[in-house]
Amino acid sequence: MAQLTKIFKYTFLISVLFSTSISYSGGPWTQKKGEGYFKLSQYWLKYDQHYTDLGKIDPNVTTGIYNTSIYGEFGITNRFTTTLYLPFFSRNLTNNIISEATGELVEKGDAVNSIGDSDIGLKYSLTKPGAKYPVSVSLVLGIPLGKDVAGINNNLQTGDGEFNQILSVDAGTGFKISERIQSYASVNLGFNNRSNDFSEEIRYGLEYGVGFNEKLWLIARVFGVESLKNGPPSSSIVSTGIFANNTEYTSVGIEAAYYLKKRWGVSASITGAFRGEIIAAAPAYNVGVFFDMSK
For 53, phi and psi rounded to 5 degrees? Predict the structure, then answer.
């Protein structure tokens, strides 16, 4: 049991921060005044192995997290856009532990349901609307609405219990490949200032999208986090569940978005880390319905 508890303490889930950073509309482009982008989505990740603090892959009790969330962007002016990410239902669970030798129940599974950690942000365009190479800066505040300690063994979480601030800069460009094919590319660099003894982080991302007849968009992303490791290891922080400290990873993701009507559409994505420390070693999935007022 002690070994299983230790494994749990070294397990981190790419969830809220990952989702808000790369899984939705954004980049350097701000919304026009009075317009916006809104999305209702379901995210899930189930894994039975993780990257350790040495970058090795170790097994753990099968664990899952499921977030039902809303995301929105709304233009206050043509250069100021507000953003909101709210997982209004978050479920974290562990499966039963069964002895491989006897088939007997070693430890019963557990689950917690609550609201999850949320993000509120403000984006400002440094360039004029319609610029060929737009650049913007963003400030995102992480609000600890989720539970950082829950479950029978206090090892389940829907949040990390810390208030953080992410300051980032985005740059990009859009261009036509042909009359029916559009494309764009963007880059992101940010700094995550964290509280409650969590280590600060450097965040970076690359994104490339191709649109066909303004209906189908295919998007590829690379996203990474590098910890400054200026905080204690996870085992010595009050947070003992899936939101561990000193995590690092580089992940890749692909997404498809299709406009069923002029403004309404559906999307699906898959993301996963191919290297990391203290993160889940399994892909995460996301499906959603969106409303795009810019169309």
Answer: -70, -10
Residue that the structure tokens 């600890």 belong to:
144
Of 167, 165, 113, nearest to 144 (Cα)?
165
Q: Minimal CA–CA distance to 64: which of 7, 118, 112?
A: 112
Q: What is the pTM of this model?
A: 0.88
Cα gap 169→125, rounded to integer Å: 10
pLDDT bracket for residue 105 (50, 70, 90) = confident
| Furthest C-alpha separation in the chain | 68
Question: How does DSSP classify residue 235?
Answer: G
Name 138's bridge partners: 123, 168
Tokens matching residue 50: 């993780």
Which residue reads 């406009």 in tokens?
259
CB 168 within 8 A of CB 201: no
Environment class of residue 160 by beta-carbon count within 10 Å: exposed (0-12), middle (13-18) or buried (19+)? Answer: buried
